[in-house]
Amino acid sequence: MTDTPTAPYLGELLKDSPTNWGKWGPDDEVGALNYLGPEQVLAAVQLVSSGKVFTLQRLIGDPKGDPVWPGRSPAERTQILDESDWDEGGKGAEYPGGLHYADDKINAFLQGSTQYDALGHVWYDGKIWNGYDARTTVGGLDRASVQPIAERGVVGRAVLLDMARFRGRENLDKAETYTHEDLMACAEAQGTPIQKRDILIIRTNFLRLFFEQGEAFYEGFNEPGLVYSPELVQWFQDMEIPNLVTDTIANEVTFDPNNGVALVLHNALMRNLGVTLTEITDLEQLAADCAEDGQYAFLYVAAPLKVAKGSGSPVNPVVIK
Ligand code: UVW
User: What percent of the chain has pLDDT above 70?
Assistant: First the structure.
């Protein structure tokens, strides 16, 4: 990873940045997802008219490779039982009636595929979301793990912001940035302005380069994405954005071009405002459909897995039009 010796400390950079700590009580673990109540769910359901369904998860164990954050490895799936286990001398047990079955397991980073980050996933100054002590992460997240997010689920109106198409490109490039003003301009151009409490789904199609370039993709790793500014953070706060979903590995430009700091928005949005982040989605079919039918707002439903103490969880979000 790039190391910028002059990069300011996050605590200094974000010292005047807003927080939502305490807003939903001293025990809150789902943050801005509290903005999604029955009213938002019912309004989102009204957007369903054609019955078209899209799933946003990338394949786990893709023969072409699984894109992951540097230092993580893709999931390994191991076959434990298959028909060969009932060959002569095989380990398959004999069941009354002649049952045979297949079993397998995976060894995977919980953030190694399309995923929800727990709010306690990142921090600085020894404090995670809602001001909980970062020592609560030792040995597993005792506070703000992915479990409470999984227990409540995520349902609301989502808007696709197709930044690649808006910029007239197949994909955004390494280190390319965009701001909240670009998101609003994209939404206006698509004919669907962003509303308060919308789930934002941003398409860059950057991971196309992973499949095209293989390992070379990781050289000078610096993903495109949203870039920090106090105004952007305030916009997320004013718009009460509950959930930011993208098709990149980490949702924001990896190294802020203005100061060199890594993943500033993970901290300004997730740690401080309680915005849930969802990463590595596959938006290609949905984006093609939106370009065709012009419907950029729709019902979004996601339920990460209930992993006790987990700092994240795989998920297969569903969009219904
Ligand atoms: C890190 O926070 C390092 O990665 P991600 O949010 O992509 O899981």
Answer: 98
